[in-house]
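Researcher: Go.
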Amino acid sequence: MILRRIVDAFRRQDRFTVFVETLIVVLGVFLGLQVNNWNAARADKQAAAAYLVDIAADVRADMTEIARVTDSARTRIAASTYLLRRTGHTDLAPAVTISQLRMDDVFAGFESIEIPDVALPEDARSDGLWRDAMGMYAFDTNKSAYDALIGSGRIELIRQPDVKLALQRYYYLVNALEETQRRTIMPMRVQSFGIGLERGLSPETRAAETTLVERVAADPALSAAIATSREHAGLHLLFCRLIDDQARRVLTLLDDVGVRP
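Model: Structure:
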């Protein structure tokens, strides 16, 4: 109808009517596009909020997991350090090192970490030293929400640069720990378990402390397996500290932008 009126106005040389009718068409198109843009922007904002809520839940679950890994690592350090000292070892590694070079990434200032001197708990069973020294709780993350965001190809939905950077650093650390476990800790752990099994020590073996100390003192391979477990526990503590710190930063930033569970 509007186009017909415009054509009729042209025929009548009614320039004012042509102008008004054309303006109506242009404004209609403009407003339609704006409404579409507003709807798209609102949908993007809702999608980003949904992703961030799910990511925050995953990060909180990771922090619980990190607490378990930290507790396991400290247990290993306590038992392995005690055993090695009982067998006369005075050359325990004081720290675990991931690089001899200064880094300029998320590991900057944390190229190495001192292995803490953790005392055995008072309620620790003396016949469980082998199990405690060799046992390990491995970190297992749930990054399904972040993977879904990346897989969607729409990381630009996260408008806040500091939030985006914090998430990228966080999952860089998470991936680094998982790869370290897969490529370094687990293969060495299998070898250490093999050493124990060859000597009749299963992962859950309970052995009298005196007997175990005598066997470790007389067997360099057992001592090396226990020392390796202690050093890998120190490596776990390094990652746990970094991941926990970055997780708290991520959650603080998400809370600042109004992300609520």
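Model: The first helix runs from residue 2 to 12.
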